[in-house]
Amino acid sequence: MGEVIVITSGKGGVGKTTTSANLGTGFALQGKKVVLVDADIGLRNLDVVMGLENRIVYDLVDVTDGNCRLKQALIRDKRYESLYLLPAAQTRDKNAVTPEQMKQLCDELKQDFDFVIIDCPAGIEQGFKNAIAGADRAIIVTTPEVSAVRDADRIIGLLESEGKHNPKLIVNRIRPRMVKKGDMMSIDDIIEILAIDLLGIIPEDDYIVVSTNRGEPAVVNPISQASTAYKNIVRRLMGENIPLMIIEDNTSFFNKLKKIFNL
Amino acid sequence: MREYVIFKGSRNGLQLVLDASVEFEILLENLAAKLESAVDFFSRGTMVEVPAKVRNLSFQEQEELSKLLAGYGLVFREVNDQCADDIAMFETKEIERLVIAKTIRSGQEIIHQGAVVIDGDVNPGAEVIAGGDIIVNGTCRGVVHAGAYGDIRATITAQRLLASQIRIAGLIARAPDHLDQPDQAEVALIEDGIVIIKTVSMQEDEMHKLQA
User: Fold this and answer.
1) Are B59 and A151 within 8 A, CB to CB?
2) Closest CB to B106 among A157, A192, A195
3) What is the ipTM of this complex?
4) Which domain holds residue B65?
5) What is the CATH number of the domain that holds B27?
6) What CATH number was assigned to the domain covering residues A3-260?
7) Which of B24, B64, B105, B110 best tests the A interface by mutation, with the highest count of A CBs <10 A?
């Protein structure tokens, strides 16, 4: 029996979809059987980020409406055999599915997969309620911005009132140089407010933009800093004890030299 | 039996007032009994409003409530406006202090007629409204309102008082735009008609002097 993990944030644009794609691919790299579920009905993105857009025949709403079998709607990833995607419908809206249907869907997927990763839409309305309905645990993504942290806090409260306790936190898009200068919230500032366990930190990385546009998750690239960070998170989720990576500013000439000589 | 559920007339139909201090299951039973006793009284399609602020209902609770009302032909609707005296309608003889052992997060709201003690933080975007004193055994960054029913003697105490707004009775004090981090517990109270903040130790010294 697998585990259902929902990736949520409240605020939009903090990296839920990127995180979903990278964690899913990361699990597949570790040999796990994974399915990514795009719960953002009407604004589907995960298929694009995964580079699987042109393979969609059936979607999530087709499954819940009974237009097709679950197996028919699952798209196998082009790179990894054990990675699947259940795309969202683009022509419908969030009300096309009920929390009960989502729960049933998750229970069904759990039978066949080690990990079911749900990409939650932004907001706290129907789409959010659907996305968290079947989740066993939640991962909150936030960026070091006051507004994103505020929304994350709201989400933690809502999860609590739905009986989903102990969500884990990923802080995305940290820029060490700005934190050092005091221009950006530090990890400690964020943890002090949210008071939940930190699962990992992802440095700001230009490569994410490249990978998103190419439809190829960043974890595939061994030299991207974000890739290492995502791989660490995957291993932590699998129960390994990996220390937090020290994100350093590698833009200086000396650091670049160090990297070339692998020091 | 004390009434935990009250129907009030409102502009858009009926307003349902739920006692925030009672378990949801009991409220639901109470409501069912009430509806059953007056089936003919409620006309079909009447809008029933439940002020969101009275209690923070979970999605599931909202659904259960809406189902129960639908059984009697009533339409459930959550509204966001609510005045404090809705709660004052419940006559309580002894007002107990409410102790909450968790962090109050953005969007969550604690409303209580008596004193409120929070063993945790009050995060930005959260609200605590109390008829009596408020004590936060942690960092207070949200909005706190003590003496909400007019008690000007009410105080607000926090280990770290960084509240964006402090309200006592009818007075509102806003935090300065640049707030220094306090390094010790502070208390907010009304003195000479304005809200002032002093350290707890200062306050205690003054109390001793008064007694002596």
Assistant:
1) no
2) A157
3) 0.74
4) 5-86
5) 3.30.750.50
6) 3.40.50.300
7) B105
Q: Look at residues B86, B113, B139 and tell me which one is the last residue of a structural domain.
A: B86
Give chain B's domain count. Answer: 2
* CA B80/CA A160 separation, integer angstroms: 21
User: Are the C-beta atoms of residues B132 and B147 closer than 8 Å to each other?
Assistant: yes
Q: Do B124 and A99 touch (CB under 8 A)?
A: no
Best B56, B63, B123 residue to mutate vs chain A (most A CBs within 10 Å): B123
**Backbone conformation region of residue A196, classed left if phi is above 0, alpha if psi is from -120 to 50, else beta:** beta
Residues B139 and B82 in one domain: no
CATH code for the domain in which residue B99 is found: 2.160.20.70
Question: What pLDDT, in 10s, does the model give residues A169-223?
Answer: 999 999 999 999 999 999 999 999 999 999 999 999 999 999 999 999 999 998 8
Quote the CA–CA distance of A207 and A225 in Å, as a whole number. Answer: 9
Is B56's Cβ below 8 Å from some Cβ in A? yes
Helices A225-237 and A16-29: crossing angle, nearest 10°? 70
Q: What is the dihedral of CA B19, B20, B21, B22, to 10 degrees?
A: 60
Q: What angle do CA A155, A43, B59 make, to 5 degrees?
A: 35
Q: Which residues of B are less than 8 Å from A156 in CB distance?
A: 105
Cα of B119 to nearest chain A Cα, Å = 14
Domain boundary among B26, B61, B86: B86
Q: What is the pLDDT of residues B148-180, one digit of tens each?
A: 999 999 999 999 999 988 999 999 998 887 777
Phi, psi (deg, nearest 5) at residue B12: -100, 5
